[in-house]
Specification:
The chain is α/β, with parallel strands linked by helices. It contains 16 helices and 14 strands. α4 links the parallel β3 and β4. The longest helix has 17 residues. This is Heme chaperone HemW.
């Protein structure tokens, strides 16, 4: 399918141990930030758990007394101090992007979110034009809190709308009422945010074509400059998966999801949005999410928070998942890293192809080996790659190719 709902996985992969002090191999420090440098901050708190959620998030009941939301900003700043020590004499030239995700970051106060951003600036320095995003649930922000976030230096807000219809929101166990997301988008623009994203999920059981058309119409009318739309993925262990196993709800249909994607492309394209990644559309180039583009084009980033992933100089690592374990390690001066892996050239190439092919910019054909170029030729013949771009030496997906993006990737890899 063209796009799936993605975030921090509930189960972390295996890998080699991270040194107690978090030290990186010397080779990883030689080119920090040459392809851009970002900071991701994971806020693991949620007021309630959505039925589809398999992310590394916790409600107050799930945390018990094991972690304090009030002390969380200080804990993140402790990891930031460790990050400064690890990079030492090899700091990035600047921080190009910051993305605060979750969870529901706006359950933290604007003051705490501002302190975290200020800590990043004092540690490495924010670029003058840095993009600074926070995710938010629509019910977790107010006009006053949005003004405070803008004053603290945040430049972009990403709101979890998911749907405009009450029935779909109920199936997803979303807490905000229908219409609240677009209201919050307007409040964000009034607070001075030029860049506002609305997230949609499509393919929810029980969602009709009319339901999704309503969601698209409301997104367009909201005046935002960015839209993300992801096909619902049902993860084991979620409430939604349990309801499907019991037969209360049908499983999502790939055919329906493809129809929804085509509907999104038609509605958003007619409203002046252009796709720049399979699941993301922006009204202008300035509205594209630069932090995600850094991920997709091989930049470096440090991930702060429990379960957060980082990538510096070809080394990828991930933190322990639980907020209590995360805080405990930092309290004694130890890295919260759980494990890491050094990407081989073959693994780095595979990821580069997987990610760049999803972009409207595509990837140069000369980065492929002979088998990959043969696969690209077959994809061109099948109508999955743009012939004009192909003639210019690039592999760029057609609309049909976007629907079959995963299959095209497989054709281009050994």
């Amino acid at each position: 399918m063209p796009g799936t709902l993605v975030a921090m996985p509930g189960v972390l992969p295996d890998g080699e141990p991270v040194p107690t002090d978090g030290a990186l191999p010397p080779a990883a420090l030689t080119s920090v930030g040459q392809r851009g440098f970002g900071v991701y901050v994971h806020v693991p708190f949620c007021a309630s758990r959505c039925g589809y959620c398999d992310f590394n998030t916790y409600t107050s009941a799930e945390l018990g007394g094991g972690a304090s939301r009030d002390e969380y900003a200080d804990t993140v700043l402790a990891e930031l101090a460790l990050a400064r020590r690890v990079l030492g004499d090899n700091p990035p030239p600047r921080v190009d992007t910051v993305f605060v995700g979750g969870g529901t970051p706006t359950l933290l106060s604007p003051d705490d979110l501002g302190r975290i951003l200020d800590g990043i600036d004092r540690t490495w320095g924010l670029a003058a034009d840095a993009e600074v995003t926070t995710e938010a649930n629509p019910e977790s922000v107010t006009p006053a809190s949005l003004r405070a976030l803008r004053a603290a230096g945040y430049t972009r807000v990403s709101l979890g709308m998911q749907s405009a219809t009450p029935g779909v929101l109920a199936i997803l166990d979303r807490q905000h009422r229908a219409g609240r997301a677009t209201e919050a988008a307007g409040e964000a623009r009034d607070a001075g945010f030029d860049h506002v994203n609305l997230d949609l999920i499509y393919g929810t059981p029980g969602e009709s074509a009319e339901d999704f058309a309503t969601s698209l119409a409301e997104v367009v009318a909201a005046g935002v400059d960015h839209v993300s739309a992801y096909a619902l993925i049902v993860e084991d262990g979620t409430r939604l998966a349990a309801r499907m196993r019991r037969g209360e709800l049908p499983y999502p249909s790939d055919d329906v999801a493809a129809d929804r994607y085509l509907a999104a492309e038609a509605a958003l394209g007619a409203a002046g949005f252009a796709w720049y990644e399979v699941s993301n559309w922006a009204r202008t180039a300035a509205g594209r999410c630069r932090h995600n583009l850094l991920y997709w084009t091989g930049g470096d980033w440090w991930g702060l928070g429990p379960g957060a992933h980082s990538h510096v100089g070809g080394v990828r690592w991930w933190n322990v998942r639980h907020p209590s374990a995360y805080a405990k390690r930092l309290s004694v001066g130890e890295s919260p890293g759980q494990a890491r892996e050094l990407l081989s050239p073959a693994e780095a190439h595979m990821e580069d192809v997987m990610l760049r092919l999803r972009l409207a910019a595509g990837l140069p054909l000369d980065t492929l080996d002979a088998a990959g170029r043969a696969g690209a030729a077959d994809a061109l013949t099948a109508g999955l790659l743009d012939p004009v771009e192909y003639a210019a030496g690039r592999a760029v997906l057609t609309l049909r190719g976007r629907l079959l993006a995963d299959a095209v990737v497989r054709d281009l890899l050994p």
